[in-house]
Design a protein that fits this description.
The protein is 81% helix and 0% strand. It has 192 residues and is mostly helical. α3 packs antiparallel against α4, α4 runs parallel beside α6 and α7 runs antiparallel to α9. The N and C termini lie far apart (50 Å).
Amino acid sequence: HIDQCIKLCAENNDSLRLINSLNAYAMLYTNCHLFDEALEQFDLQFKLKKHFTPYVEFNFYNSKGRMFYLKQDYPKAKSEFLKGLQVVPHDDTYAYMIILLNLSETYLLLDNADSAKVHLDEVSKLGIGLATMPVFNFYYNSLLGDYYAQENEFGKAKRAYDNADLIASGINVDKVLQKLHLQRKTKFLLSS
């Protein structure tokens, strides 16, 4: 279906839908760990940058950052997420929280806990988002646990991980986020 959409978008000179279709392909390739193919789709999207809306531009950088994250190229993931942070509409709480949490996680993987904490604190300031979007609250507490574990504040780390578990018990958490949380918590339990 994506191929048909791309063809129709090209025929109708609909750049925005073409960009979104290319992004769908890029994410499909990313999820299949076909990173070279995903990069080709991102390159095609970038050629249409003049047609980006603020949200499409944010989505481009966030998606590309996610691809580098899954490729375990954390410096490049950080670079893309930082570009996304520069363009994300701050009044879009959902998108703003996504990029802040992605940056926090990337900084933690780069063993840069101080930078991760800056972004985690910004997420915390968006308390309404945490209250109304439990998945973000789960993800935030899991990352906060990782931050405290890196800072050797084991009591705070355990409380944050326990908070994440409590939140997860009442909602349907994405399997990938749940798996990452369990990996972080297991690493913490084995090291403390």
